[in-house]
Amino acid sequence: MIFPDDFPGLQVLTPADFENSHLRNIEFDLVLSLEEEERCALLASMVSAKKLIGVHFNHDGLTYTAQSSSWYDMSLISQKGKVAANALKKSNPFPFQHWLFNMTGNLFSNQPYAIYRNRGIRKIDGLVGIESRVGQTWPNKQWVGYESLEKEITALGYHVKYFRQRENIRDYFDDIASCSCIISGDSLPMHVALAYKIPCIAIFNCTPPSEIHDYGILNKVVSPLLQSNLYSRTYKEEVVNSVSVEQVLNTFKKLALPK
Predict the structure, then answer these.
(1) How many CB atoms lie within 10 A of CB 49?
(2) Domains of the chain, with CATH numbers?
(3) Which residue, 13, 47, 132, 253, could crosslink 146 as a Cys pair with Cβ 3.0–4.6 Å?
(4) Integer Cα distance of 139 and 234 in angstroms
(5) How does the average pLDDT of the chain come out, rounded?
């Protein structure tokens, strides 16, 4: 979920908003609730629906429906407990799309993302977009090598653009669409690049690369410390330093992008 603090131009419906909204008078065929977050779960529980799949709220707190259990049994709200959830996570070979399609009774077979795109934005050859920022939840998604990588890429004749905060998320997506390559952690710009079919490189320090389907265009650089720091929310300097600039640079060179 993207909150207003992340993108002030984006409005997010809250449970309080829902109480005063015309939406409370609508019965939906399906509510698909995917966020392990109390506000979202409460909202999903308030909506009138013929069917609810995913996370919702009851007197015990956050829980999830049986149809979505294969995914959420591996989560922080797992009914199996933390130890079992972590074991399932580590052994999971499938991308999140597999589980999402599965919980709705469908089969994932390389279906593409379907998101907003401004068709007026043209890709600029030789422009490499870098997202060096990370959120507070996963501090180990940070990587210390971006500035050094920028120098190496620039020396090869490419131009680098660092993404910045935008008032509207669509402007942020437009910034990504103008690039011929995206380099980041396991984060939003990686997903947008996959949706826009832009070659991308993602550094995985603390989240499982197996859960991200590469669509033939994502290049994964995996930390050697990944397994011992999987889903760790405690910042560790050795983790954010564990991937070398040379590793990422060599991956970039193999893309053989036009300048």
Answers:
(1) 17
(2) 15-103 (no CATH), 127-255 (3.40.50.2000)
(3) 132
(4) 7
(5) 92
- 170 touches 7 (CB < 8 A): no
Local structure of residue 74 (DSSP, 8 states): T
The one-character DSSP state at 144 is: T
User: Beta strand pairing status for 61-64 and 27-28?
Assistant: unpaired
CB 160 within 8 A of CB 150: yes
Q: Residues 6 or more apart from 225 whose CB is under 8 A from it?
A: 205, 238, 239, 242
pTM attached to this predicted model: 0.87
Closest by CA to 79, choosing from 100, 63, 57, 103, is 63
Sign of the CA dihedral 66, 71, 77, 82? Answer: positive
Chain centre to alpha carbon of residue 75: 15
Q: Cα 74 vs. chain centroid, distance in angstroms?
A: 17
Neighbours of 153 (CB within 10 A): 22
3-class secondary structure, 161: strand
Burial 171-201 (b: 16+ CB within 10 A, else e): ebbbbbbebbbbbbbbbbbbbbbbbbebbbb
Rounded distance, CA 64 to CA 79, Å?
Answer: 9
**Strand 61-64 versus strand 52-58 pairing type:** antiparallel
**Count of C-beta atoms within a 10 Å radius of residue 111:** 12
Do 121 and 170 form a contact (C-beta atoms < 8 A)?
no
What tokens appear for 11 in the block? 């409005």
pLDDT in tens, 62-86: 999 999 999 999 998 999 998 999 8
Cα 15 to Cα 24, 30, 233: the distances in Å are: 10, 18, 28
